[in-house]
Design a protein that fits this description.
By secondary structure, this protein is an alpha/beta fold. It has two domains: about 160 residues, NAD(P)-binding Rossmann-like Domain (Rossmann fold, 3-Layer(aba) Sandwich), CATH 3.40.50; about 100 residues, N-(1-d-carboxylethyl)-l-norvaline Dehydrogenase, domain 2 (Orthogonal Bundle). The chain has 13 helices and seven strands. A seven-stranded mixed sheet has the order 2-1-3-4-5-6-7, with helices on both faces. Helix 8 packs across helix 11 and helix 8 crosses helix 12. The longest helix is centred in the middle third of the chain and has 29 residues.
């Protein structure tokens, strides 16, 4: 199957390679000349045979919005656009409407797998009309992991459902990573535990907490015991925030996901104003000692 792929970053570049290895003809476009196959989006459209299928794999937000608008101007009736980035699901309806006015179909696809997807395959969560999803199934089947289709691919519902599912997926991921991190810190704090990495390594097989994330933490600890080479500063992609916002809207309690999001915010503070206030209050009501910052800093 022939496919246009816009965005050849860490994910897009590997997806192009996996699809080519699977026998598909992939024509990629990226602003970076060292990785692109064609110089412009117009050239990409001209290189594809109608009816075209174009997968967009660029950062969410304004870049995705601009890319889809530009594609609407160079593609034709009967073509199909797949947004595989981490767009917020509320953006999918407007994108589908804009493309639909020109007879161009739209699918939103949540993609998980990171840099390991080239070898292991990608978990896919898609939203769109049945006919459009069926049309793109050769692409989805090549990208997903081997094995039964349902173990790595889901047609979650109409437009928007794919990105909503991926949003919740990332929220769960936030909570899992925090739990694994807390477990490591507790193990490292206890003198009885001689090697926290060995404990996590032992958990990779047979235990009820084993998972790919847990295996990656064991691997990371082996490569950098004690994490002496990195700081605890942790960014968030936005999907954890969106998950909490949607949980509030739907009145669904997600305390674990919310706590993991706020933990990331806390990681960016050199000295927490909240804990300074707590320390001051303890001193005020109970006369508890506070740790003063010396004049020299």
């Amino acid at each position: 199957m022939q496919l246009g792929l816009v965005g050849l970053g860490k994910m897009g570049f590997n997806m192009r390679e996996r699809l080519r290895e699977g026998g598909h003809e992939v024509i990629g476009y990226d602003p970076r000349p060292e990785v692109t196959d064609v110089p412009t989006l117009t050239a990409l459209a001209e290189a594809l045979k109608p009816p075209r299928v174009v997968w967009v794999m660029v950062p969410s937000g304004p870049i995705t919005d601009t890319t889809i608008k530009e594609l609407s101007q160079v593609l034709s009736e009967g073509d199909l656009v797949i947004d595989g980035g981490n767009s917020r699901y509320t953006e999918d309806g407007p994108h589908a409407k804009m493309l639909g006015e020109k007879g161009i179909a739209f699918i939103d696809a949540g993609v998980s797998g990171g840099v390991w997807g080239l070898k292991e395959g990608y978990g896919l969560m898609v939203g769109g009309a049945d006919a459009d999803v069926e049309r793109a199934m050769p692409i989805f089947d090549t990208l997903r992991p081997p094995g039964p289709r349902e173990d790595g691919f889901v047609h979650a519902g109409p437009v928007g459902a794919g990105h909503f599912a991926k949003m919740v997926h990332n929220g769960v991921e936030y909570a899992l990573m925090s739990a694994y991190g807390e477990g490591y810190e507790l193990l490292a704090a206890e003198e009885l535990i001689k090697d926290p990495q060995a404990v996590y390594q032992a958990w990779t097989n047979g235990t009820v907490v084993r998972s790919w994330l847990q295996q990656l933490l064991a691997k990371a600890l082996k490569e950098d015991p004690g994490f002496s080479q990195i700081s605890g500063y942790t960014e968030d992609s936005g999907e954890g925030r969106w998950t909490v916002e949607e949980a509030i809207r739907l009145r669904v309690p997600v305390p674990g996901i919310a706590a993991s999001l706020f933990a990331r915010f806390l990681s960016r503070q050199d000295d927490s104003p909240t804990m300074k206030a707590v320390s001051a209050l303890r001193n005020q009501f109970g006369g508890h000692a506070v740790k003063r910052i010396s004049e020299s800093g």
